[in-house]
Amino acid sequence: MAENAAGDLNSNLLHAPYRTGDPQLDTAIGQWLRWDKNPKTKEQIENLLRNGMNKELRDRLCCRMTFGTAGLRSAMGAGFCYINDLTVIQSTQGMYKYLERCFSDFKQRGVVVGYDTRGQVTSSCSSQRLAKLTAAVLLAKDVPVYLFSRYVPTPFVPYAVQKLKAVAGVMITASHNRKEDNGYKVNLGLLFFAYLHVPFLFKMMIFLYRELNSKTTLKFVHSSFHGVGHDYVQLAFQVFGFKPPIPVPEQKDPDPDFSTVKCPNPEEGESVLELSLRLAEKENARVVVATDPDADRLAVAELQENGHWKVFSGNELAALFGWWMFDCWKKSKSGNADVKNIYMLATTVSSKILKAIALKEGFHFEETLPGFKWIGSRIKDLLENGKEVLFAFEESIGFLCGTSVLDKDGVSAAAVVAEMAAYLETTNMTLKQQLVKVYEKYGYHISKTSYFLCYDPNTIKSIFERLRNFDSPKEYPKFCGTFAILHTRDVTTGYDSSQPNKKSVLPVSKNSQMITFTFQNGCVATLRTSGTEPKIKYYAEMCASPDRSDTALLEEELKKLIEALIENFLEPSKNGLIWRSV
Fold first, then answer.
1. pTM (whole model) above 0.85
2. Distance between CA atoms of residues 26 and 221, nearest Å
3. List of E strands, 416-466
4. Does the first or last residue of the chain, that is N or C, have fewer Cβ atoms within 10 Å of its Cβ?
5. Helix (H, G, I), strand (E, B) or coil at 311
6. pLDDT in tens, 355-366
7. How many domains does the chain have?
8. Among the three residues 62, 93, 109, which one is the final residue of a domain in this structure?
């Protein structure tokens, strides 16, 4: 009888009007309990309601996730601001309405759906479960769905969208985020575009170096960081003619708990590559490649003669890729090939090294807003107009070699790095030595990226508004400490002092803050808010001409400029900012 009484009490509580004293919260509670059909996440909200946890309920139910540069990402759990059955179903319903409005042939072309290995298969928020729910929503609306039968790297989705001429693709992944997170990434299809040639990479490179690859004495170690990359990197190396890379056994198989790393992000450098480096030393392998859990990013390390490991930054790898892709293009073409038809791209917060190479070699370089969606969209436009794109990148170890996939791809990039290293070995050069040669020819590009945590949106807004009204209203700073500013670009407002009409060539992005300063000494620095986290990021690069080769002097000048940038523009002590090293 006591159990029945308790059950009646709970039933009354959960079906009565909710009177928390907050009408918005009461409405949200009612909506969640009516709409959520997953007993596990529904129970989470019911328990909070029983225990009077109104603040926790408000945090979970009275705000929603918003699309950032990488789609929707959040923790897995109950609430409108988390990743769960209900929010994925609602996101898919919203996407359906948008695509139905924009594409008359939506129900003929369909949608591709893929997923990674996040969340235990038996959990309430596993990637596989959420992918099936995404497919179910679309199938219920009579939309054809191409659902991958197993987990795949993120780039497989945009490739399948192209190949199948689908309207869009959805990938359930949180990439290299912490194990508690998941995400919902959308790729829009290519309206009237079908670029369905043999993969560009294979056409351009395998016929040049496949035999060399098969004979190389180099050994490679690969870590898939407990994600989806192992099988696919093994296959990519095979297609390129290599022996299989040596896998890190503890990190080879999918593990949603990421049990051997504190953070499943190879961008963190040597600290998270520990198992890879020790295995490489044991196996006498000189090069380590590591893909992040959804295999769209690539980290690379090389053993140096002094016994230390060189972990390349994303910008350094881009310098090598830029040199290599252009060199391969030249060798694959006849003497009358038009270099002016060639393009390379980078996001605007990434190194300007491709710009320096392009100016010297005669091809085109373009910048986009941060996020590979902008790169993919611009590449689509270029290809439709008969241009050829060799390479694109973002500084956070995201690389696109060729145009088989209009997204960053760690799998193909890993094979290209191996091929580059194998070729350089025949000339008695290492990757590090070749990087120095690139900088000597095109100019040293020395960069530093880091960020400050700031949990108060008003403080973030006031920092950037101060920069827009620095010495007087609507006036940007002319100096940062002793460093003179040549140009200022503010994509939040659409202003660019370097342009004749003072308007930014890049699209206006009002939903985020981003200001770039170009200094008279050749440095370029950008202050930017994160699209998904409470961060103010800074990106600074010293872009030197080839005749300036004193790297110690360049690094010291960059260090002083960054210190001035932080002290004069961010004022961390005054604004309560918390610095984090990257």
1. yes
2. 55
3. 445-453
4. N
5. strand
6. 999 999 999 999
7. 4
8. 62
